[in-house]
From TrEMBL:
The gene is PDE12. Its EC number is 3.1.13.4. Gene3D superfamilies: Endonuclease/exonuclease/phosphatase. Its cofactor is Mg(2+). It is found in: Mitochondrion matrix. Residues 161-271 form the 2',5'-phosphodiesterase 12-like N-terminal domain. It catalyses: Exonucleolytic cleavage of poly(A) to 5'-AMP. Transmembrane segments: none annotated. Residues 203-228 have a biased composition (Low complexity). SUPFAM superfamilies: DNase I-like. The lineage of its organism: Eukaryota, Metazoa, Chordata, Craniata, Vertebrata. Residues 299-599 form the Endonuclease/exonuclease/phosphatase domain. Its main location: mitochondrion. Residues 202-228 are annotated as: Disordered. This is 2',5'-phosphodiesterase 12.
Length: 609
């Protein structure tokens, strides 16, 4: 009799076998005696383990047992729970047989015998064909690959298989817009999982021969589904899908094994898109990925959901925008389509919610060959994505402006100037703004490296002096990375700088200096004035020039966003034209049903000199 746990058996799923498995094959396996599945979740940090399995009557049991409990108690509880299910299934089975093969008296006798047998189900746990002793603790007894026997039904124990903790489709699904399911996995990852998309068959259409995987959803018996032929995480419905619901069949995996499959149906059918979007014409310039010598770069403040979904936003900032067009599910459709349509090599985003990064942007952009890194600010943060076929990530050098200014010797001289103005110093150190710095290496030429910086400076209209100091910290830090750590590498500095071309911050970046008597040092009044002269090392220019506006809302429009490049090492190949004024103002201002943010993306092709 087995008493002590040995090495766990490892289930090694073969991807192609799982992908090709059909309903017919599964039925054949069951007829040949294939075992059911008993899923055990056992995590050291939790006092209980969970056990899930299906009974003979088709019902599911989910049990919670103490990890330190002897196995015998758990088996007794399973026997009690299984009694009704097995008795009911046995009685139904015998009743059907008796109606065909026996007289009324014989049927009663056999039925009674069957019920008696069902009252005493055999419940045992085996490991390596030996019964596990009942005094073994649950934490040690329920090993991967063990066999649970309940009556005449055997279950293969799967301990901690890949499983979904969250599995959702977006509420709004529109033709022509990529659909990205929200997935969270335990003991697995999306890259090791299997996906298969279906759409409803049109009314009157027969279910395809062979069908799809058995449904774990609540679709009606009359529902029939057709395979779309798409086996990726992201699916882009076509106009032919309008009016039809979608279904996603997914098997969670981790590259070595697979867990229980799940199916999810969209609540609503695919809808027609909003018509022409502000970015559709721009996509005509970016149909293909840029050639290897070019770096297509995007900078975009995508409007954080934490700001869009407030009463103030709906009634004061964006009262002209249809409420549904401010909802995240709707805007994500537009953001995903806009970004993927640029076929960019670098994408720097601001106002990125953490969940939007992990659940929406990462899977959608991964499907188009990009990988991303994220830096949280407070309620939202920054994201930088790069094309994996062109770049690899060498290192990250992110900072908080406040922390760097207070603790990094690099900014000692600037801090000494600032402490002379206590009110200004207090305001500067209260800000939560951050700088994201990533060093990338070309996959085609390892000698080529590039420093990509991304930031979102303080927003307040009267915060000009704060933005000047934040930019001074940023440029000093970028110089340290691009000159000291990686001497001579080019710099691309993207962001929402909340500064028009007439401000001190822009003047400082472009000219390399700012005098101490510049009016922005008193941007919030004389009490907070902090006169100081600043200089920086770089020779920078705005790659996209000075557009009339990159932010267009009801009460303001102006150029706040830039892609700054180092003139010594980079040059501009082309700038993708911004939407026309007519396109921007079709629905009065931004955001709108055809544009997901109050900002406009900057897009340009750069190349090494």
């Amino acid at each position: 009799m087995w008493r002590l746990p040995g090495a766990r058996a490892v289930l090694r799923g073969v991807r192609t076998a799982v992908e090709q498995r059909s309903r017919t094959e599964a039925a054949t396996e069951t007829a040949a005696g294939a075992m059911e599945r008993a899923v055990v979740r056992c995590v050291p940090s939790e006092p209980k383990l969970s056990l899930s399995f299906a009974l003979a009557d088709g019902s599911h049991k989910n049990m919670q047992r103490d990890q330190s409990e002897p196995l015998g108690r758990a088996l007794n509880r399973i026997a009690t729970n299984a009694l009704k299910g097995h008795a009911k299934a046995a009685a139904a089975k015998k009743s059907r047989k008796n109606r065909h093969n026996a007289s009324g008296g014989a049927a009663c006798a056999v039925s009674g015998s069957e019920t008696a047998a069902a009252c005493e189900p055999v419940v045992k746990l085996y490991y390596r064909e030996e019964a596990v002793a009942e005094d073994v603790l649950n934490v040690d007894a329920w090993q991967d690959g063990a066999v649970l026997q309940i009556g005449d039904v055997k279950y293969k124990v799967e301990r901690n298989p890949p499983a979904f903790t969250e599995f959702q489709l977006p509420r709004y699904i529109m033709a022509g817009f990529p659909v990205c399911p929200k997935l969270n996995l335990e003991f697995g990852d999306p890259s090791g999982s299997l996906f298969r998309w279906y759409k409803e068959s049109k009314p009157g259409a027969a279910e395809p021969e062979g069908g799809g995987p058995s449904s774990l959803s609540t679709s009606s018996p009359s529902s029939s589904w057709t395979e779309t032929g798409v086996n990726e995480r992201v699916y882009t419905p076509s106009n032919a899908d309008i009016g039809l619901r979608l279904k996603l069949h997914c098997t969670p995996g981790n590259g070595q094994r697979f867990g229980p499959s799940r199916e999810l149906e969209s609540v609503c059918p695919v809808e027609a898109g909003p018509g022409t979007c502000t970015f559709d014409h721009r996509h005509l310039y970016t149909k293909k990925v840029a050639e290897d010598a070019l770096i297509r770069t995007v900078s975009y403040n995508i409007l954080a959901d934490t700001y869009a979904q407030t009463e103030f936003s709906r009634t004061v900032l964006y009262p002209y925008c249809a409420p549904y067009a401010l909802e995240l599910d709707y805007r994500q459709n537009l953001i995903q389509k806009e970004l993927t349509g640029y076929n960019a090599d670098l994408i720097c985003l601001q106002e990125v919610d953490r969940a939007v990064f992990s659940d929406s942007l990462v899977p959608a952009l991964e499907a188009f060959g990009l990988e991303g890194v994220f830096r949280i600010k407070q309620h939202e943060g920054l994201a930088t994505f790069y094309r994996k076929s062109k770049f690899s990530l060498l290192s990250q050098h992110d900072i908080s402006f406040q922390e760097a200014l207070e603790s990094d010797p690099l900014h000692k001289e600037l801090l000494e100037k600032l402490v002379l103005y206590p009110l200004a110093q207090e305001k500067v150190l209260q800000r939560s703004s951050v700088l994201q710095v990533s060093v990338l290496q070309s996959t085609k030429d390892s000698s080529k490296k590039i420093c990509v910086a991304n930031t979102h400076l303080y927003w307040h209209p009267k915060g000009g002096y704060i933005r000047l100091i934040q930019m001074a910290v940023a440029l000093a830090h970028i110089r340290h990375v691009s000159c000291d750590l990686y001497p001579g590498i080019p710099v691309i500095f993207c962001g929402d700088f909340n500064s028009t071309p007439s401000t001190g911050m822009y003047h400082f970046v472009i000219t390399g200096s700012i005098p101490e008597d510049h009016e922005d040092w008193a941007s919030n009044g004389e009490e907070e004035r902090c006169n100081m002269s600043l200089t920086h090392f770089f020779k920078l220019k705005s790659a996209c020039g000075e557009p009339a506006y990159t932010n267009y809302v009801g009460g303001f429009h102006g150029c706040l966003d830039y892609i700054f490049i180092d003139l010594h090492t980079l040059e501009v190949e082309q700038v993708i034209p911004l939407p026309s004024h007519e396109e921007v103002t079709t629905h009065q201002a931004l955001p709108s049903v055809s544009h997901p943010s109050d900002h406009i993306a900057l897009v340009c092709d750069l190349k090494w000199k």
